[in-house]
Design a protein that fits this description.
9 strands, 690 residues, two-stranded antiparallel sheet, six-stranded antiparallel beta barrel, Methane Monooxygenase Hydroxylase, Chain G, domain 1
Length: 690
Amino acid sequence: GPYSFRRNTSGSSSTMHMKGTLRKWKKTPSSVEKEKARSPAALHLHREVSLLITECLWYVMTDFKYQEHLVTKILEIMLQQKHSEEFLEHIFMMLHHYTQQYKEALFLKKTSYCGDLTYQLMRFCNFKSESVRSQAATLLYLFFKKNWELTGQLVRMKLQCSVAVARLVGDVKMKGTRWLSASLKAIVAFSVSDKDATKQFREELDVLLGQRLTEILHKVSILRKWTNDREMFAGVLLQISLGWRDSPDIRYHWMEAIAKRHEADGELEEAAQCRIHLAALVISHLTELKPDQVPYTSHPAGKSRIKQALLRAAPNCEPEFRVECNTKTAIAEGMCCSESFTDGGYQKVLRDAMANLEKVQLFETSLEISRLLSLPLIQSRNWDSITALYSSSAKLASAIVDSDRTQSRLFSNYYRVILYGKKFEENNGQSFIYKEQGFVRLSDLSTRLSEQFGSLFGASNVQVLSNSWKGKVGELDPEKVYFQLASVLPYFTPEELLQRPSPFERATNLQKFIFETPYSADPEVKLSKAGTKELGKIKTILTTEHPFPFVLKRVKIVTKEDQKLTPIETNIEIMKDRIQKLNLECDAEIPNAKTLQIVLQGSVLLQVNAGPTEICRVFCGQDSENEDPGLRTFMKKLFREFLDGCARALEVNSAIIGRDQLEFHQELMKGFERVKQEVEPLIMVAPTTE
């Protein structure tokens, strides 16, 4: 090899010497990267530079023993690079010596070295080369031995191995864990054959590697089965992460895995929600464990301000503020020692969330994140960064004003999905609300789910049930899977609508949804033949387990409430909605001629929509004596408001149109006069009974 490792006559590992020699690059059949894709000259240069760095690093370790941070970072960077198997042997030998020399820094000091290097070794434990896996497993076993010798326990290595597995699974490029499982079993076997290992050490190692981590990898293998089902995949990841609430480092990386999957699928709002949850997790643990790093949280008002801002940005992040680890021993055990659990790590996840939010035009949530980012900058008096941040905030505020005025933003659409079939396992028969991007229509979602489930169960085994299907589940083919779709809208009470005046406020923090199903009030009249007098509707209000937005784009429905409306009640709602639209157009700060004319056209031009006059004739005319007197009186009141609203809307339209639209305005005026002539006699004079 290019290096020869020789011991001094004393035999001490700390006096090991390295002699560097240069030799021509020799191609080997098995290498970490596909060397054919690179020229021999480039490979030779890469090899020689790596050898020089390694030799320099050896001298640093020998002559400057207190430079453990520099040595660790260089080793970590080298382990991240692609090398031939032959050269990896030398890096592993270097790491063996490093473990002997810097064992206190690895297992006693409050550093991230143990976690950083454990992750890299775990990565090589899942490598395709048996030789590389064997050397990495041997080094990992050495880590366990040194941790035990120094502390009499394996707390730090247990934590860092679990974190490493979570990080590996979160890598969307990772294809499988078969070799990693074999490496973990090999490490357990090392302890059995190690005569110096104590019984307690072997037992604890077996519990961690032979049971706990193997169980996680088993769950991961199940997870791989759902790779093509983006909703199920993210849901399983979330369930795994919830099992690690007492280990913030591990939970961090499982949540990060969900965020990466969302980003890969283009679901940027959900990815941002994961980042905001991570920010809440980090800041809560920093406040408890490292308060000196976040002085802006020392005052109760500052802490409360941060929490409320995070909750406004992510309405489901409340559980992240609960610190469930043992705060007295957490740091000593190696918890929260990584770069992620620093003020810089906190700001990074917030900036990542903000970048995702801006891409999907969620400017209001971005502003909340901007406020949070301003606190540490003000504390550190970083005025240049504050200037840039405030400039960015001003642009966000301007974007909100413009988008609200032009109504140019497409907010999310929501759909109810019911799954049937034993192949869905625990989700068989469950109802969900799916959150989709604003351009996704019902047919688009139906096509995606058909293809998605088809890739899992076979295209011939997937069937879409119509929304009117009310058959028995037992009648369905047990070998097939079925799903039923319905478009739903966010549901608000009148009081909630007053509290949510802006389009964004009506598109966020949503937990109730509604869809309507028509029915014929006359059993002798089929639904397809039912007219205004017979046609009623059933309003179905659904409540989800968590409000949207959430870290998942699919949330389970927990309650369902049906409200059956009679035909007159149904049409009262139609007229109230029509009046509300007229008032909204007239009360707009800058009236929009296009949308105003659409509402007017549907209200007064009978050739387009004869709805209002027909409703008035049926429920206010002489044939309406069988209707509830109170509802009939209320309907007449609504029609008086409707006529006033149309007159007002026509005045607004007259004031904002150009000369080219005068002819169309005249048509609207004539239509209004016709509606007025038909409606006024019915609402001014009570119907008589003879």
